[in-house]
Amino acid sequence: METVKNLRILAIAGSAVAAMAGLAACGSGGMAASAPPPAGAQAPASSAAAPATLGEANTSLGTVLVNAKGFTLYTFDEDKPGMSACTDSGCKSLWPPITGPAQPANGVSLPGQLATFTRSDGIEQATFNGKPVYTYAQDSAPGQTKGDGVLGTWHAVVVTPGGGAPATTANGTGTSGGVSGY
């Protein structure tokens, strides 16, 4: 029993150290190890980026904005209208920007305005209600909201508070993956 308890403590401590190392990259100009983006992350755009199809999913936080693969979108408190503060490679690896012109998924009526702006690095990034949007590399399955509250500055884009219902992707299909906090 004591061994199981010690393993849990080690697992939690290891996860916390790994998360803090990755988060240290955000807001610092230094080099940091970066995790590869998840399957739901968007690759940096060329000058003619494909449209980013956005939708909604039900999570424990309520209804959140998601990309076409059902991954939760986030905003960063340090961003300003038309400007991303997440521009160094470490931050962009952990918080991949949603690139290209944003459009709602078929049959989805989003309760906000989609737009784009050109970042200082030349990437066209999608915005929701004027705020740049990102995915989180630590979300490994659709419907997860692990990035909500990270460093007190990253927030899931909650379009309807509440929650508890199973997650659905931008194309309306359900997921069986669990929803977890960070």
UniProtKB/TrEMBL annotation:
Keywords: Signal. Residues 163-173 have a biased composition (Low complexity). Residues 1-24 form the signal peptide. One of its GO terms (biological process) is alkane catabolic process. Residues 163-182 are annotated as: Disordered. InterPro entries: Lipoprotein_repeat (IPR005297). The keyword Signal applies. The keyword Signal applies. This is Lipoprotein with Yx(FWY)xxD motif. It comes from Amycolatopsis carbonis.
